[in-house]
Specification:
Elements: E1 16-17, H1 20-30, E2 37-41, H2 47-53, E3 59-64, H3 70-74, E4 81-85, E5 102-106, H4 112-123, E6 130-136, H5 137-144, H6 154-162, E7 163-171, E8 176-177, E9 184-191, H7 201-211, H8 218-223, H9 230-239, H10 253-266
Parallel strand pairs: 2-3, 2-5, 3-4, 5-6
Antiparallel strand pairs: 1-8, 6-9, 7-9
Length: about 280
């Protein structure tokens, strides 16, 4: 175990990872090379920051919202480390130069979903291809959930369309100080295609609308939020060999990409022009 941590702030959802073995595993999972520019989110007292600086990474951005932790992190400053104090959900990651190609995050669980969306929006188009993140185990299952699972989610589908997400290992509460009330998991996210997808307005809209009414059939859910007749939606489902009673969680990411492209043809005006979905070569 690392040294004892200072008092934490419950309003920030602070649970510091202090298990040295798991910290070393995270660094190993990140597969850091000398060409890597890393963004660490949730630097805390610098336990993981210190280990990342022991790798060959060319640059490390360490983000922390709690300015009271400055004394712990300032002692690590050097030519490869840039400390950033602020709310990661609100920071403009596109301004980072050079842009990070990897993210390592041990973040408060209540901001996991908005933060991952923000990371994908800002950094996937700029070359981000790997994320190693500590999340609540329940969230981890949603990120990797496959079709027909009740744990399926818009973010999980988007990650699968852009690459893949998988749980690397579970982490018990005893690995943190203070101990959280839930189990955690380390998740690996790889990004290799459709790098603009998180910025696609139509994609986000149809997923959000469908899963907000997940008790309804997909045709009913979409017809209630889009200016498209239900019969047209049912015809699109038939063309994709999908049952008319299918629900949002039943579709593969390929099905969702098909629907997104077909629905674009039926929507008027500006909704027909979301950002392009560029595939990384």
């Amino acid at each position: 175990m690392t040294r004892r941590v200072r008092s934490t702030k419950s309003k920030l959802g602070q649970n510091f990872l202090v298990d040295k073995g798991i910290l070393n595993q995270i660094v190993k999972f990140a597969e850091v090379s000398q060409d890597d520019v890393i963004l660490e989110i949730g630097a805390g007292e610098g336990n993981l920051t210190r280990l990342l600086l022991e790798t060959d990474c060319s640059r490390l951005y360490a983000v922390e919202i709690d300015t009271d932790l400055k004394p712990f992190l300032r002692i690590l400053e050097g030519p490869r480390l840039e400390l950033i104090f602020g709310d990661a959900v609100k920071l403009d990651f596109t301004a980072l130069a050079p842009a990070p190609n990897k993210v390592v995050a041990n973040i408060p669980y209540h901001i996991t979903t908005p933060l991952l969306w923000h990371i994908l929006e800002d950094l996937a188009p700029k070359g981000l291809h790997r994320i190693i993140v500590m999340v609540q185990q329940e969230v981890a299952r949603r990120l990797q959930a496959q079709p027909h699972s009740k744990e399926r989610s818009p973010l999980g589908i988007t990650l699968q369309a852009m690459g893949n997400a998988r749980i690397l290992r579970s982490v018990p509460p005893a690995a943190f100080r203070p101990m959280p009330k839930v189990n955690s998991a380390i998740v690996e996210i790889n990004i290799c295609r459709w790098i603009e997808l998180a910025n696609d307005r139509l994609w986000r809209h149809i997923l959000r609308a469908s899963f907000s009414k997940r008790r309804k059939t997909l045709a009913n859910a979409l017809s209630s939020c889009l200016p498209i007749e239900k019969r047209v939606l049912e015809e699109l489902l038939k063309r994709q060999n999908l049952n008319l009673l299918v629900r949002p969680e039943d579709l593969s990411f390929e099905d969702w990409l098909y629907l997104r492209d077909k629905l674009e043809e039926f929507l008027p005006g500006g909704e027909q022009n979301p950002p392009p979905m560029i595939k990384r070569t």
